[in-house]
Structures are given as C-alpha cells and as structure tokens.
Backbone:
C-alpha cells in the first residue's frame, strides 16, 4: 500500500519533516517514491510551516495513496492547504 507520511530530517532538537509518498512497509526515514512537501514545526512564519505540492498530493490520492494520521491533521489545520486540495 502506498502512503503519504512524514519523514524526519534535520538535526538533533531541530526537526524538519519531509512529506513523502512511500511504500507502507519501508522505514520512516527510508527510501521514498516522491517528495511532495516540507513541514517545519519551528518556523516563525505560519505560511512557511507547511509547504505542499497540491497537484502531486491530489494525484497520489486519486491513484489510491492513503494519508497518514499526522498528515491529515496538518492539512486540516492549514486552511490554505485544505482549500487547494
């Protein structure tokens, strides 16, 4: 099954997450199919907290990819992202 989920990057105590499309069996930070966005929980500017490629997100959802619980929550919390998807 293909999932859209977060993969952690960044250094110790300064997390940044990539929003990736990956096989559900692969490890969290392992190989992924496509990078479709970034999530920076420490960003000072709210508009830069979540950056997504809306076209690719919609494409993968139409193909059958499932969003992880956390990615679903992020999309719902950011009205600009929710309006585009």
Residues:
């Amino acid at each position: 099954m293909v999932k859209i989920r977060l993969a952690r990057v960044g250094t110790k105590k300064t997390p940044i997450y990539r929003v990736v499309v990956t096989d559900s069996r692969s490890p969290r930070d392992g190989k992924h199919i496509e990078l479709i966005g970034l999530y920076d929980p420490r960003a000072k500017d709210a508009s830069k907290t979540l950056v997504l490629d809306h076209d690719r997100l919609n494409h993968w959802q139409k193909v059958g990819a499932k969003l992880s619980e956390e990615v679903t929550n992020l999309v719902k919390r950011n009205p600009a992202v929710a309006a585009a998807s």
